[in-house]
Design goal:
With 292 residues, this protein is mainly β. The protein has 2 domains: 6-206, Immunoglobulin-like (Sandwich), CATH 2.60.40.680; 212-289, Immunoglobulin-like, CATH 2.60.40.3080. Helices cover 3% and strands 51% of the residues. The protein contains 1 helix and 19 strands. The strands form 3 sheets. Strands 1, 2, 3, 4, 5, 6, 7, 8, 9, 10, 11 and 12 form a 12-stranded mixed sheet that branches. The longest helix is centred in the N-terminal third of the chain and has 9 residues, at 6-14. It is globular, with a radius of gyration of 21 Å. The chain starts with 5 loop residues before the first helix and ends with a strand.
């Protein structure tokens, strides 16, 4: 697949935005991308998308959208390897979009945003009166949704990041979304953990991570930064240029949720903004100064 201009990538991605549902379930679900080993014919790494319902209420799945970023310099999705594991009386999960090796430098903070891969798997329960896939409450095992394989470089473990608010919002505004149906209406399912498991070792993305957003970007003489939650400790903001030189240092007080960074004296160019609380938690942003 050819490299795409990042602006085109974002415009196309915005089309995927699904309207927000007014009601959310109290049920909590864990989403995992689980390595299941190489395929039978080669050494490609294969994975399952699994769901685990650890709430006290059964959930009947309706619409599903799984959006995943990966390091395209180390792996490539084999599109014809994707298989839906949903029951026959449910609509099949299918590949909606796959972008490979997109240059998203300056739009986010993933360590591989210069070689960004993006996957969107989705399905909808077309008739809400049909019986959907039930996720039983408090089960000890997960339910498999789909499988897919990747061609990897030197047998490395690919790096994956589930698309979610407060973590990958700088790339686009569409995230992993699951809904449940009672036969009449759909309600949004809360996801509390996003996991990736390689060879039995699991890394977890917290669903409600501490993070920051910027506006505007590119910026002129002022940059506004807001946090998804007020700082629970004192912090310090540091702005570095691309050569690692410290440009601005600004202390932040506990309880701060928005700041305005004065940048009139900052030269045009790309910058890294690091915000670190006393407990060691960090948020790292990328911004560009321009006169236009």
């Amino acid at each position: 697949m050819k490299r795409l201009d990042i602006k085109l990538f974002i415009i196309i991605f915005f089309i995927l935005i699904i309207p927000n549902w007014a009601v959310s379930l109290n049920g909590q679900v864990t989403l995992t991308l689980l390595e299941i080993g190489p395929s039978s014919q080669d050494e490609n790494k294969c994975y399952q998308v699994n769901l685990f319902n650890h709430s006290s209420k059964d959930l009947t799945l309706a619409g599903q959208n799984y959006r995943l970023y990966y390091d395209a310099s180390k792996a490539f999705l084999i599109e014809n390897s994707i298989s839906s594991l949903l029951p026959k009386d449910y609509t099949n999960l299918h590949l909606v979009q796959h972008f490979f090796d997109v240059d998203a430098s300056g739009f986010g903070a993933l360590p591989y945003d210069g070689h960004l891969g993006f996957i969107n798997l989705a399905t909808d329960l077309l008739n809400h009166t049909d019986k959907g896939l039930v996720l039983p409450s408090n089960e000890t095992t997960s339910i498999s949704i789909a499988e897919m394989c990747f061609n990897v470089v030197d047998d490395v473990n690919p790096t994956f990041t589930w698309a979610q608010d407060n973590l990958t919002h700088t790339y686009a505004t569409a995230f992993v979304e699951l809904t449940s149906t009672d036969g009449k209406q759909e309600t949004k399912i809360n996801i509390d953990n996003y996991n990736v498991t390689h060879a039995g070792v699991t890394s977890t993305q917290e669903a409600n991570v501490w993070s920051a957003k910027m506006f505007p970007n590119p910026f002129l003489n002022q940059l506004e930064i807001t946090f998804n939650n007020a700082l629970n400790d004192d912090a310090v903001l540091k702005m570095y240029d691309i050569f690692g030189q410290l440009i601005i240092t600004q202390p932040l007080s506990k309880g701060t949720q928005a700041i305005k960074l004065e940048t009139a004296t900052v030269s045009n160019g790309a910058y890294i903004i690091e915000i670190e609380q006393k407990d060691g938690s960090k948020s790292i942003l990328k911004a560009v100064k321009t006169n236009n």
